[in-house]
Structures are given as structure tokens and as C-alpha cells.
């Protein structure tokens, strides 16, 4: 039964609402920006109205299946782990887009909201907001780059473990967190590499000038 529920979660997560909303707006969002078929790229391409709807739908596809299964007692304890992880993976590896999906941010918030009655998702949002403020200050008031945003998402998820420890969550929650961290890191791997490369090249140029 756990396998069946995990498949249901994966199917729910794989529904690419933001991509389909973009097509309804005559925009293939995979051809814009970083090509991400998620809600935030939809926001930039098709405007805030479509973007907000995309965020809501991507959130709900993570929230509804987990919340429903838990409320009915279909899954509990460690049995929640494969279902929660599969739901996020469905967005990242959607069969509707030839196994290439989005970054998984909105669906992540949906899953954690269902798992912890919004507590962990709110904590993650607060952490991301704090990191964004710090990044803007360090960037002298300028907007952050897409690469920095990707780094903040990963660092924010990594930092989230402190909140889990503070609230004394059960071990299976840490399993979901670790899997989520790996997924988020994977989906942002290109941004992280580009940021590392840019920092390395700047440092190399600075050292060359100093010599």
C-alpha cells in the first residue's frame, strides 16, 4: 500500500500546472529565463496573476495528497517518508515533460505544510527571507542573481535542520529533510556550479593582479 500511495504522490507532484498555465497564456516558459517550468519562472514570463495561481497549484499538489493520506490514517510514521519524497520527485522528474521538471520549491512548501501543520514551511520561509535580506545587504542593495537565489534555497534547507532539532521532531522527519536537501541541491546544481566558477575566477583574477 505504501508503494501505491507513493505512486499517487508522485503522480500528483508530476502535474506541471505552471507549465500548462504558461501554455494557456501562449508562453512556453521552458523557453524563457533558466527554462524552469515552475511557478516562479511563470511569474516572470506571464505576470503575477498567472504566477500566483501557479504557486498555489504547485503548493496544493504537494499539500493535498499528504494531508489527505495522513488525515485518513493511510500513512503514518516512517511510512510517510517515501510518499513525501515521491511527491517532490514527481515535480522534479515529471513524466509529462519527458522526466524533466522544475526546481521543486513550491511543492516542497506544500509537502512540509501537510507534514507539520505549516510549522516547518513557515520556518523555511522565514529562513529564506533572512538570507535574502543578508544577500541584498552584502550586494549593496541590489537584487540578487539567480545563482545566489539557488544558493539561498539550498543553504536555507540545510539550516532548517536546526529548527527540526529545536522542535524535537521524530527521526522520520529528518529522513524527509535529508532527501529534500539532496533533491533541492540537485535541481540547483547548475546555479551552484556557476556561482562557484564565478567566485573562483574572480579570486584567481584578483590574485593575478596582486602578483
**Unreliable stretches:** none
Order of helices and strands: HHHHHHHHHH
Number of helices: 10
End-to-end distance: 65 Å
Give the tally of structural domains: 1
Strand content: under 5%
Which shape, going by the Cα principal axes?
A: globular
SSE layout and pairing:
Layout: H1 2-13, H2 17-24, H3 39-46, H4 48-71, H5 80-92, H6 105-116, H7 119-138, H8 146-166, H9 171-187, H10 189-210
What report would you give on this structure?
- This protein has 211 residues and is mostly helical.
- The chain has one domain (2-210).
- It is built from 10 helices and no strands.
- Helix 1 packs antiparallel against helix 4 (48-71), helix 3 (39-46) runs antiparallel to helix 4 (48-71) and helix 7 crosses helix 8.
- The longest helix is centred in the first third of the chain and has 24 residues, at 48-71.
For this entry, give a set of tags.
G3P_acylTferase_PlsY, 74% helix, 211 residues, single chain, globular, mainly alpha
Short description:
By secondary structure, this protein is mainly alpha-helical.
